[in-house]
Amino acid sequence: MTEHPTFLVTTPLPEPGMQMLRGAGTVDVPDATLDRDGLAHACASGRYDVVVSQLRDRFDADLLAHARIRGVANYAVGYDNIDVDAATAHAIMVGNTPGVLTDATADVAMLLILATARRAVEADAYVRAGRFDGWKPELLLGQDVSGRVLGLAGFGRIARATARRALGFGMTVLFAPRPPADRPVTDAELGEFAGRVEHVQWDELVRRSDFLSLHIPLTDDTHHLVDAGTFRAMQPTSILINTARGPIVDETALVTALADGEIAGAGLDVYEDEPALAPGLAERPNAVLLPHVGSATVRVRSEMARLCAANAIEMAAGRRPPHPVNPDAWQ
Ligand code: GLV
Ligand code: GLV
């Protein structure tokens, strides 16, 4: 237990989180972004009790083996930037920020469904370019959303919040809970969705979805889950939505599928090699591209900052954080 802990905050959090950290200990923010070696050096220095990290900070097994820290408080719900097994092996607790960003991220999934279906970005560019010269029967025709099939890869919090929205729009909702494999889903887990959504296998989801939306973590099993074969199996009118993690999709294959008309469109908030885009993606008019803003509302980012700071403060004190990813790390 450290009486006056020191926190390494790799990138300042919104103020509510910074205030909590400053109230609990010393806060160190590096002058420039730490690269992998800079982060490894800081973690090994013994100066810090807890690192408050971002998705771009990578904690690999080697870094964690040499780290002299109690915990990593990641400012995100996802934690694929951290080798959690290695953290657990070295008694380093990892915390994340689930729950508070669920609705905001589901809103962005719905936004991408609507924007791709109704060509909102193309239409906006058309107006701004001064090309709008009056109502026309066949101007910028898009696709219906109501009455169409939304396929959810995953059935966690964000997938369910997206299902709720889609049902409100009159969509038919299918889900594959843990693609590419399957897992049982009990009536209790289905809850409010019993009888309103259909549990299917991944290959059926791919085939039947008008909109295929990804809500799964990035793992070895889900890396390139959506690849050239998936696009061939989708309908030519189908649209891919990704608010989860870029590397779940083979982005080069996606550009080809969009260019060749294998699928009709894509709405993306995340990229395989973020912040870089696969060559040709930015030129596709049938792609709507957002800069990883799923949780980006003023309120949500403040809530995430509070949760992240609470995780960091509890870990620094040797107490179990409110949202541990690997609660067994200290056993
Ligand atoms: C953002 O991508 C997050 O995991 O919170
Ligand atoms: C992420 O928080 C999820 O469970 O979908």
Q: Please write the CATH class name of the largest domain.
A: Alpha Beta
Cofactors and ligands: glyoxylic acid
In CATH, the topology of the largest domain is named: Rossmann fold
Strand content: 5-15%
Number of strands: 12
Mean pLDDT: 97
List keywords for this structure.
2 domains, Rossmann fold, binds glyoxylic acid, 12 helices, seven-stranded parallel beta sheet
Task: Explain what this protein looks like in three dimensions.
The radius of gyration is 22 Å and the shape is globular. The protein is an alpha/beta fold. A seven-stranded parallel β-sheet has the order 8-7-6-9-10-11-12, sandwiched between helices. The protein has a five-stranded parallel β-sheet with strand order 2-1-3-4-5. It has two domains: 6-99 and 299-330, Rossmann fold; 102-289, NAD(P)-binding Rossmann-like Domain (Rossmann fold, 3-Layer(aba) Sandwich). 34% of the residues lie in helices and 14% in strands. It starts with 5 loop residues before the first strand and ends in a 15-residue tail after the last helix. The chain has twelve helices and twelve strands. Helix 1 (15-24) runs parallel beside helix 12 (298-316) and helix 5 (102-117) crosses helix 7. It has helices spanning 15-24, 36-44, 61-66, 84-89, 102-117, 120-128, 157-168, 187-190, 202-208, 228-233, 251-259, 298-316; strands spanning 6-9, 26-28, 50-53, 71-74, 93-95, 149-153, 172-176, 197-199, 211-214, 239-242, 265-268, 287-289. Bound molecules: glyoxylic acid (2 copies). Residues 55, 76-78, 101, 294-295 line the site of one glyoxylic acid.
